[in-house]
Amino acid sequence: MSPFAPALLIAASYAYVRAGHHPHLSALNALAEFADERHALRERPMAGDVFLQAYTRGRFARMGIVVRVLAPEWHESGMRFDVCDTIEVEPAREFARVGSVVVERERWLSAELGDRFIRLTLLGSQELSGRSTARHVVHPSLEESFTC
Question: Could you tell me the residue ranges of all domains in the chain?
Answer without folding.
Answer: 6-147
